[in-house]
């Protein structure tokens, strides 16, 4: 089956992409004290040279004292970190690429295995990361307001540094998702509530602040997931109606693209048909969507964290869905982590040269 549809341009506002392939955000923890190094810049530059349409950075944290649980995760604040990011985007642009940072606040976390802890306790809607696991404080209204402003500041800085868009990390049980989830948001003020729609208020205010900071023309992506890392089969929205009640306020607040995180892109979201999460999100909102999850690989990314390797697989089912119009863009994680030239190999039909994914690739920034 042809992969031609992956190599058609995509244009939205000031975001002009040469193809439909997006590098998925992947935490690499190679930025000591939160500062991206020259090697980090080279890592992204190589993927731009390798013709990835849009690079999304690893999650990079906003200016809150406990927004991270890892000293080597990059900051998106502070002079040194922003100088590092400026180098990243300049090198990506020189190589002909486009890029957006994934703006992140981790919320309530497990302590990192390194033993590093932030200077103040983790913060979240109700101090919980999952049912029965509390490791931090419940945010006050002032904390919430300052966090919203910090998201806005990061977006303004992204635009000022020359990035092409931004992605808000609203998935995977980090801060924004902790507000969405009834098990981690027990608030009785207007940031909580019985319905998923009620619990979108924090995300809506973050999006509105970001939109205010970046203006109408700058593309805003939000990444969302139905699953939780502690429960792969969990669904925040249990029906299409509930999904509409969740996504519509986010779109109304100013989001342009929905990035729908799944472990396996071919899995249907609801019983009605074979549409995946990105397919349903596009059908419900009419907005462009990004799909992701084991594209071109034989096993999913939670397996990767357990040390599992993956072999290259066919892209036929992916292109069938793309051609049908289910989604607009396709994010690829581990294949691009392992091989900066994954896109050019696909484009030129050199499938026999694909390397798959091996756990060793997690231990370095692969540059060739
Ligand atoms: C090493 C690693 C780090 C990741 N870090 C992030 C992250 O910072 N933010 C995020 O939204 N997802 C993160 N993910 C999930 C990926 O973006 C992606 O959704 C997942 O790997 C599935 O895509 P794949 O099957 O193509 O690898 C990470 C995945 C991996 C393998």
Automatic annotation (TrEMBL):
Keywords: Flavoprotein, FMN, NADP, Oxidoreductase
Domain of life, source organism: Bacteria
Entry cofactors: FMN
Gene3D superfamilies per the UniProt record, alphabetical: Aldolase class I
GO molecular function ontology, one term from the record: NADP binding
Keyword Flavoprotein annotated: yes
Entry annotated with the keyword NADP: yes
Domain NADH:flavin oxidoreductase/NADH oxidase N-terminal: 5-352
Name of the molecule in the record: NADH:flavin oxidoreductase
Species for this entry: Flavobacterium franklandianum
Taxonomy of the source species: Bacteria, Pseudomonadati, Bacteroidota, Flavobacteriia, Flavobacteriales
